[in-house]
Amino acid sequence: HVFFSSLFPHFSLGMGSPTRVHLPALRLFSPHPLYMMKLGRVRNIVVVAGAGISTASGIPDFRTPGTGLYANLAKYDIPYPVAILNINYFSDNPHPFFSLAKELYPGHHRPNYVHYFIRMLHQKGLLLRMYTQNIDGLEKLCGIPDDKLVEAHGSFATAACHLCYTPYPAEEAKQAIMNGNVPICTFCAGAVKPNVVVFGEDLPEKYFQHAEDFPKADLLMIMGKSLTSCLILKVFLLCGRSSPSPAW
Description:
Helices cover about 25% and strands about 15% of the residues. It is of the alpha/beta class. It has a domain at about 35-155 and about 205-225: Rossmann fold (3-Layer(aba) Sandwich). It has a five-stranded parallel β-sheet with strand order 5-4-3-9-10, with helices on one face. It is globular, with a radius of gyration of 19 Å. GO terms for molecular function: histone deacetylase activity, NAD-dependent; metal ion binding; NAD+ binding.
């Protein structure tokens, strides 16, 4: 087991007085990244995060048997589990997605020690970029600045028509969804959706704007990920031969 706070023994995570935080064991590769961090030889860290970092905040992940999102979709009356996150099914019937969106909208949960640890990396000048697949907004809420953050699956902060992509006021879309209504595009009458990425949609443009991050990084931290998604595979393709040392 590793005490990350031993790297910065006098630096608070922002959750009260400085304390050691006990995190799960990491798989380390030679040379050991945490040892290199202590020596000051790691200066550019890229963090890739998945749903697992938010479970401590009370947000379920996708695949955990019994508690994951995919295991609890029967109440949405959909023909197959991922239909609720498929843009083609959304076009035919947006109501299941909006029922789920009510539960996923930011504001019900708080960041946990993992989010604050990543913020600490930024405050120490070590965070080159954080790539998150999460749409819970906890990274921004804990203080990770926008220029250091790539929300690879979008966010609820903006909304647009899913057909013509005309922007729509995000707060109006939220109010309609929370009231059980479907926000409608004023241009083409298509259903408006928060700009979170579902199956069948492209990743946000910002995801492709920092390809130089991975060759530049000397440490790649993977958190809360099983490495089964296409996003992570693309990340490693971007790393290429000059891949940084990984730790997860």
